[in-house]
Amino acid sequence: MKYEVGMQIIFDVVGKRAMIIFRGNLIDLAGPFANQAAAIAAGEQKCRELGWLEGVDGIPRVN
What we know:
This protein is of the alpha+beta class. 22% of the residues lie in helices and 32% in strands. The mean pLDDT is 87.
């Protein structure tokens, strides 16, 4: 899945939470998440809610 330039989702394995960097904003998802896959899925969903349109041309992304 392609992310916008600068978009990051980080899983904190100790705290079982996710941190998102999206369009210059740091967002904390408290969780707890069972594993990294669940945290990443929640982070991607939050980015969608904030306007991330995966697969749409014209938005700078990285692989």
